């Protein structure tokens, strides 16, 4: 019961964080591993838990969805499906020992991207890359999302900025849609590969959905800078803990 309570609280907090800023996987993944779930299975189960939040965010931004400059939305969705499938397939063939060694670096990279995202996006505003570069960037991000998912939204925003996209609402709408699509296809592959602990996943899905609703209604009252610093601190602390476990 103590473990289920911990997972419920972690998922609730993760849903709230994802609703207002991101970084929810910094809580769900360590909580599952602390409860004795093997790293690869913990990554897959935590991703399943956060899927409803992505879908709800997409619905919330449905009016803001726009065609991307230089690329059609259907083509970008196809890239998400392809990349998410490749990333999830890669996770299926990754053993727990290898993933355990990669995890601190992945968490640290996601935290660094979260910390640097405002500066990176500001530096790209109004500047576009070639369609080939943008396609390649989106594909790589989709593969990453299917494999690990941590910091996915930040990477998608950075990739979209390569297209010269500067309307933040439109970018968030497309980001949420792509996150939902590639995560959904990854979850199907995780399930087929028997990587999901469904009792924990379903409990965390409910908690994360409730947390997302609460976050959207309440947590936005917190100062954005304070919230951001708190998430960065959590990411750094979790990275350090997993480095010490190596």
TrEMBL record:
<keyword id="KW-1003">Cell membrane</keyword>
<feature type="transmembrane region" description="Helical">
    <location>
        <begin position="31"/>
        <end position="55"/>
    </location>
</feature>
<dbReference type="InterPro" id="IPR002781">
    <property type="entry name" value="TM_pro_TauE-like"/>
</dbReference>
<dbReference type="GO" id="GO:0005886">
    <property type="term" value="C:plasma membrane"/>
</dbReference>
<keyword id="KW-0813">Transport</keyword>
<dbReference type="Pfam" id="PF01925">
    <property type="entry name" value="TauE"/>
</dbReference>
<protein>
    <recommendedName>
        <fullName>Probable membrane transporter protein</fullName>
    </recommendedName>
</protein>
<keyword id="KW-1133">Transmembrane helix</keyword>
<feature type="transmembrane region" description="Helical">
    <location>
        <begin position="226"/>
        <end position="244"/>
    </location>
</feature>
<feature type="transmembrane region" description="Helical">
    <location>
        <begin position="76"/>
        <end position="93"/>
    </location>
</feature>
<dbReference type="InterPro" id="IPR052017">
    <property type="entry name" value="TSUP"/>
</dbReference>
<comment type="similarity">
    <text>Belongs to the 4-toluene sulfonate uptake permease (TSUP) (TC 2.A.102) family.</text>
</comment>
<feature type="transmembrane region" description="Helical">
    <location>
        <begin position="134"/>
        <end position="161"/>
    </location>
</feature>
<feature type="transmembrane region" description="Helical">
    <location>
        <begin position="105"/>
        <end position="122"/>
    </location>
</feature>
<feature type="transmembrane region" description="Helical">
    <location>
        <begin position="181"/>
        <end position="214"/>
    </location>
</feature>
<keyword id="KW-0472">Membrane</keyword>
<keyword id="KW-0812">Transmembrane</keyword>
């Amino acid at each position: 019961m103590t473990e289920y309570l911990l997972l419920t609280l972690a998922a609730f907090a993760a849903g709230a964080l994802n609703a207002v800023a991101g970084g929810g996987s910094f809580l769900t993944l360590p909580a599952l591993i602390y409860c004795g779930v093997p790293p690869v299975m913990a990554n897959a189960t935590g991703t399943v838990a956060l899927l409803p939040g992505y879908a709800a965010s997409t619905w919330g931004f449905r009016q803001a969805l726009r065609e991307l400059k230089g690329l059609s939305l259907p083509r970008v969705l196809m890239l998400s499906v392809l990349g998410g499938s490749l990333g999830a397939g890669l996770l299926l063939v990754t053993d727990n020992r290898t993933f355990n060694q990669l995890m601190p670096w992945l968490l640290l990279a996601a935290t660094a991207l979260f910390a640097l995202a405002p500066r990176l996006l500001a530096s790209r505003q109004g500047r576009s890359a070639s369609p080939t570069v943008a396609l390649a960037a989106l594909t790589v991000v989709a593969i990453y999302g299917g494999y690990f998912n941590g910091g996915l939204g930040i990477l998608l925003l950075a990739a979209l900025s390569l297209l010269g996209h500067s309307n933040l609402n439109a970018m968030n709408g497309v980001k949420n849609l792509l996150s939902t699509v590639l995560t959904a296809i990854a979850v199907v592959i995780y399930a087929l590969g028997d990587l999901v602990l469904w009792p924990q996943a379903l409990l965390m899905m409910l908690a994360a959905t409730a947390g997302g609703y609460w976050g959207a209604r309440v947590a936005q009252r917190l100062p954005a800078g304070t919230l951001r610093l708190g998430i960065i601190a959590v990411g750094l602390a979790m990275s350090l803990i997993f480095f010490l476990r190596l």
